[in-house]
Amino acid sequence: MINSPVPAYVFGPFRLLPLERVLFEGDRALRLGSRAMDLLLALLERAGDIVDKHELVAIVWPNAVVDDATLRVHLAALRKALGDGRDGQRYITTIPGRGYGFLAPLAHTGQPAPGTAGVEPRHNLPVMLTRMLGRAEALQTMANQLLQLRLLCIAGPGGIGKTTLAVVLATRVLRRYADGVCFVDLAPLDEARLVPLALATALGVAVPAGDAMPVLLAYLRPRHMLIVLDNCEHVIGAAAMLADALLKGAPLLHVLATSREPLRITSEQLQRLPALELPPADAVPDAAAARHFAAVQLFCERCAAVDDAFVLADADVPVVVDICRRLDGIPLALELAAGRIGHFGLHELRRQLDDRFRLLTRGARNMPLRHQTLRATLDWSYCLLDAQERQVLQALSVFKSRFRLESASAVAGCDVFDTLADLAAKSLVSIEFCCQHVYYRLLDTTRAYASAQLAAGGDASAVLRRHARHCLGLAGRIAADWESMLPAHWSARYGRHVDDLRAAIDWTFGEEGDVALGVALTLAAQPLFYQLSLMDEYRVRVARALECMAAQAVDDPDSEMQLHASQAHLLLHTQGVTGTMLRSFQRGYALAMRTDDDSRRAEAICGMWICSLQLADFQRADSYVAQLALLCEARDDTAMRLVLARMRSAGEYLRGRYAESAALARMVLAHPEGAGQLGFNHALLADHQVCLRGTLARCLWMQGRPDDALALAREAVTVGFEHNGVTLCVALAINAIPVALWCGQRGLAHVWTCLLCEHAARYGLLYWSAWGAAYQRLLDAGDTLTEFPWPAVRSWPIQIDLMATLHDAAADSQALRRARTGLAPWSAPEVLRRDANHRWRALAQDDAAGLEAVRVQLEEALQLARGQQAPGWELRCATSLAAVMQAQGYGAAAHAMLAPLHAGYRQGRDTTDVMAAAALLAQLA
User: Fold this and answer.
1) Which candidate, 399, 566, 409, 412, places its Cα nearest to that of 497?
2) Under a CB-based contact definition with an 8 Å cutoff, are residues 121 and 174 in contact?
3) What pTM value is reported for the model?
């Protein structure tokens, strides 16, 4: 058909009649050269856009070679005729490196649609009823490609928007082709032989039924046209032959094809069409920012078309983004989903996506049948596959994340090299490149469809079993690489496999599964779940494995031992110190001691040591250190010896032997093999490097080096971010926050406490949440607190010992009993000091005997601190004692006792303790 041109363009004082190719300024006709007129019409047609200079040249000089200088000369003539720049009025702008644009206000008179230079070339392009979104860059790229190339194929999965883009592209470049554009829809064809006849029908050319090509080529040979072959995939061979014949027999012809797979002929330029852009997975933008992403914009526009009350609110953004992501950013799926917004609303629509093929139906009645439902779109592609391709596609549906070629072969049970390439060519499998490796992935909608086909067949059980066995081997490689790779690189490479391991474990414990395989998978997956901080989820999976072993009477003491050990650690961090946790540690230990495997014994001993520490039973903890030392004597294992050194370092600290503790910590940190992941280190959950930095930081503070201690505490927190959630919680709760408070850095302690609370809540680590709550109460209460508000569970003595060093109210009768009975040597000096201060404040003003008792207790605390060689405690005890002595009238003696200790501090002059001592010395002087 011939499109009617627009009678006139109006801008500024000018009026352009495109049919007559006449430009008026007011009532006066202006003289304008033909090339300048063509340039003006081309820019007006694309008003508001930047038109590439190569595209302008192709429009104005379609059959000639023209350099940039010629273009600039004619643009200069056009600008002069328009008076461009006169009185500040600009019409044509130049964007260096991009092109030119008409950016002034523009109006049209007559017909509402803009026209073109002269009579617009013929075309039969479909009318677009909605605007295209998110394809501007691809559109410009392909428009430029058609300047140099004669065959362009737009490929992509069904519903991705290939036809829409092809129509918009053909409209964009229409004026380049003197003989116009011919659009040929191949979707209705049932037989390949009808392809040339479909082209003849679209052209309006009568051809013989037998062989249409000679007549078609004779007709097209002199013509400068663009042929659009839409939906080639089901007649791909015939479409490829037609395109090849046209390009060879008609030298002025260009071909634009759309297909779910390439034509695969010489000179083809393939343009893979990706899904519409989605917001990053780790960011949730507000409504205004979300609309900048094409998938969200399309979904919202279509929702508004269905429900005029629809407005995207900030609170709804996560729901909309999740819908768009679960639909892979595929335009058709988004439009179908938006069409159901009036029935379900946003939140119910998201829930209904679990059965997306039932939900995404009832497309617009004027859409092609293959686009009426999401299932019909995928049926169209699936029916074009041969038996081998269908079998492999079904097998690939069990993968929950991207996969490698060897993984695909293992799960499919055969060599899939060629088949996988064919499926990728047909847009049913996506190809991704990362770290010099090739990965494959199924879109979620394709995966769901293929999974349903697998379930309907008879091979699902065999495929799922192969997948589970493959995941078992994969988990083994993941665990082995944890010993040698940097944590960040390890997580980036293997973190994505957790979804496949989840699915495989779930299947093994299902009706048709294999409990023994499931137990092995659960244990093998331990490092991945730990390092991804999926503690609570893994705890549930370990409990399930133990339940299934018991239900089916599986006799596997080694696996049972490992599962109990994991369960105990997980219960500690997710629920706290409980009877169930203690029994799991004890059961794992009992099973391990029956074996001859030293590694299993070492893991169980470490578990019982950690359990004893949490109960603040330091004597029992020492007994487990001795057990591990005996193992080390009988076995030349460097990793085991380094773990033993870490345990000894912690033990020496808890006994108040800070010099010995610091020396052991430095030895491990400096060891050539101490920088990597130590064998069975994952059984401790918290990374030994971070823990040792924390222990050393606390030792440094005790040794009178607060600045060094705070710097190392900061380093422990920084390194903790590189590891699992437990590691960071340990770094913060046990080490960094206490050091900050001891240094008087309450602001930093508050920041770290907020981080601890947030991190523990994010990963479901209730034990560490309780620590964060205790710190938060301490910081919020300040000096006015008279009774420490302990968390609901107060059966954690190690927390009591630590909190008692941070606030007088926490140094209560239980903390004092532990200090006096030798159960908490490391904290005893500070607990005695705080209790003495508390008693002093409660004394009557003239209670000399009571004051003397306070002085005696402070002298006891000071002697304990000196015995530990802990200047940190010593300065505090001496400052408190000097204040009491001042009150008793012994100012000179107090000054003589405190001054040397204060002078011994070479750093930390701005810490609370050093400044308090200095202030008291000034009073005593």
Assistant:
1) 399
2) yes
3) 0.68
